[in-house]
Design a protein that fits this description.
This protein is α/β, with parallel strands linked by helices. The protein has four helices and nine strands. The chain has helices at 45-54, 69-85, 100-105, 132-145, and strands at 2-5, 12-15, 24-25, 32-33, 40-42, 59-64, 90-95, 113-118, 121-127. The strands form three sheets. Strands 5-7-6-8-9 form a five-stranded mixed β-sheet, sandwiched between helices. A two-stranded antiparallel sheet has the order 1-2.
Length: 146
């Protein structure tokens, strides 16, 4: 479960991974909870696997590290892509220093590295810093190819 705080009443709402891209309602005040519009930092392999497996929309994964200058430079572009794709895709950030097993699983030897998952499987993979428009294009092309 991912937690999201309601902007209206500050209640913490638990959202199942399959619903992160949906419009919802706060459990307390019933105010609208918009789809996730920011990158979701995963901190363990189980959470990553759960989101990838349950997602009903494409998932853009950013493999990065805090010491990586290009990763830090592209972070605002990744955040912009998450806002642009809200409701149509999810954006996940994976710190390769915290989760080296995931970096190894997807051969993220050069970072930043981006993978678009569709239906729980990698559909596109590219290393290097890019602008948010390119990230959005990769996700949209992946969705159109499905």
């Amino acid at each position: 479960m991912v937690t999201r705080t309601c902007a209206s009443c500050s209640a913490v709402n638990r959202i199942p991974p399959a619903r992160l891209s949906d419009h919802g309602k706060c459990g307390r005040c019933k105010a609208a909870l918009p789809p996730l519009a920011e990158p979701l930092a995963v901190t363990d392999v189980a959470s990553f696997d759960a989101v990838i497996a349950a997602a009903t929309v494409p998932v853009l994964v950013d493999f990065w590290a805090a010491w990586c200058g290009p990763c830090r430079a592209v972070a605002p572009e990744v955040a912009q892509a998450a806002r642009t794709l809200a409701g149509r895709a999810l954006v996940i950030k994976v710190d390769t220093d915290q989760l080296p097993a995931l970096a190894q699983r997807y051969q993220a030897h050069s970072i930043p590295m981006f993978i678009v998952f569709r239906g729980g499987r990698p559909a596109f993979q590219q290393a290097g810093a890019v602008r948010h428009a390119q990230l959005v294009q990769w996700v949209e092309q992946s969705a159109a190819a499905a």
